[in-house]
Design brief:
globular, single chain, 191 residues, mainly alpha
Length: 191
């Protein structure tokens, strides 16, 4: 089931990005098992999550627009998020994958969004905590992710927002909405 997709990413991604994708796939399967989601779908979404990451930006923009999304000025100024949108378009329109959970998890794996599904949370956090990640606090993030996805999301979004702000880069509105949603969810469920 996975061999054709593994072959595809191996042919189209650098060795570094291929290794990362396989680490995310393993972590996604582990988190799906731990938190009650489909392990096979999580593994596949992990394999495919960065499928267009190294594609030229103009080709990514074309895929995004052909999929019916007009890039906002904020998105145009932050090409780092193109790959999640172009990746979702690619797996849907080129690979013919119709599973909305897989498409949605690829679409939002770097920004998050308001009202994320369990599956989307798992892929987002698998990307953030895969074995190859080595940023400060990664061990704290892994522990939080194993224990509670919402607490882990709050921690990861805080980390991301602070990192982006320190670099004076544009925050995607979906990230802000996701942070507020997770914060409200966490606060209402801890009272």
């Amino acid at each position: 089931m996975y061999e054709e997709y593994i072959k595809l990413i191996k042919e189209n991604l650098s060795e570094y990005r291929f290794h990362h994708s396989m680490c995310v796939a393993e972590r996604a399967r582990e988190l799906a098992k731990k938190h009650g989601a489909d392990e096979n779908k999580a593994y596949l979404a992990g394999i495919l999550h960065d499928i267009t990451k190294e594609m030229p930006i103009d080709e990514q923009a074309k895929l995004i627009e052909e999929n019916g999304h007009t890039l906002t000025e904020t998105e145009k100024s932050n090409t780092r998020v193109y790959h999640q949108m172009s990746g979702a378009a690619y797996i849907k329109n080129v690979l013919g994958i119709t599973d909305e959970e897989i498409i949605g998890s690829v679409r939002y794996h770097s920004t998050g969004h308001e009202n994320m599904t369990l599956f989307e949370l798992i892929i987002y956090l698998a990307d953030f905590t895969s074995e190859d990640r080595s940023y400060p606090d990664v061990d704290i993030m892994r522990k939080k992710t194993d224990e509670n996805l919402y607490d882990a999301m709050l921690y990861s979004l805080s980390y991301t927002i602070q990192s982006v702000a320190k670099e004076y880069r544009t925050l995607h509105p979906d990230t802000v909405l996701c942070y507020n949603w997770v914060l409200n969810y966490t606060n209402s469920n801890n009272n």
